[in-house]
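This entry is listed below:
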Amino acid sequence: MNKLGIVITDGVGYRNFVMSKFLNESSLNFDSVIIYSGLPKEAFTNDPQFQENKNVVIHELGIFQESNKTWFYRKLKEVAHMTLHRGFYGINSNLKRGYPKSNNKRNIIIKCIYGISRLFHTEANICTYEKLQFKSFENHPVTQSYLSFLKEDKPDHLFFTHQRPPYLAPLLYAANKLDIHTSSFIFSWDNLASKGRMLGNFDYYFVWSALMKKELLHFYPNAEIANVHIVGTPQFEPYVIDDYQVSKTTFFKKFNLNLGEKLICYSCADAGIGGNDEVHIRGILSYIKKQSPKTIQLLVRTSPAEDGKRFENLKNEFPEIKWNIPKWVLTRDNHVESWSQRLPSYEDVIDLKSVLSFADVNVNMLSTMSLDFMLFDKPVINTVFGNSKNGLYDDQKFLNYVHYKYVIESKAVTIAKNEEELHKQLMESLDQPEFRKKYRKDLINLEIGKPLEGTSKRIVAALKEF
């Protein structure tokens, strides 16, 4: 039997690898496909698309809770990695933010970890910390259960759709112990130059582009060049799947929008970094109110990671705003990362594709949504009103993150640091939507190294080679 194991950890992974063509392609090209799921089994078995693939089975993963020893070595590995690469602004920012201010027992240990990492943070040190981390949970009941079902299943290859969740480390350990080859997809465009260490080392890697391949080889010098494959990302593949397409009339009617007016979409950040979302939205509204007669309307799409309740006052004050609250369902709340258990609906993917297709301009705070809208050749404005001096949340610090510097330098987006700049950029975007067309195309080619069509086929073809 030619058998593929796929590790899907969360709702975003579900969207990327189940709601794209990846699962269907895997089912067609392997005799058997086993999904090792960080989501409840019912999330898959209740899905009509899953039911079409008769050779796919689900193994629900046990929830791994770290011991104190495992946490210590994992934390030491991550802090040492960030210390080694602290020359990168985003990594250094996260490193500084993680240093405790108080002196309770846990924080004193973290301070000790920082002290050790200042002295010992070579790649060899980091690999040693990882070995100690993996050894610390080798006898854990969850690890033993992983060893047991991998022995029984005997997958030829185990593909991790996300390289970061630390609670998956025991599964990687079990695969290594049983000499099962592993691979991982680099989950997001900011995961390498802004975040901490991966959950472990894999035999093969999938990356979005040549740029991401270069970054991976820098941060993980033990990876072999030939084993890093450029495939694009299935994150955007639904945009070229007809099943997710509806007409503009249908979309505008659903959200009570006026077909005769232009549409601005503001896409919110997650609550943790979106402290200025309301300020930015008010800035857009003040521009719209200047138009006479009224020719522009506003749709706000909130983050899928939250329920939008933080905007209740804004909704009551401005009933003219239309709201797209992503339809993601919390499948369970007893998880170490409960946000990961939010599952997208097919309706939401259709809504998102419609927003991208029919909005005239997007405004967001340095989000991946910039790429989403540029794939539909739409003007993008990045609002960063806050800094360390004006009392707002300092979102301007993200301008220094390496992954976003490429965006800024590309001229594919405009950066609004205050309301006056936002108004000028809205005028440009609405009156001259083609002005930055070439810059948008060039940036997409840089960040997403392959066409959206055929993304799943490329990944599956590479997995078959492995």
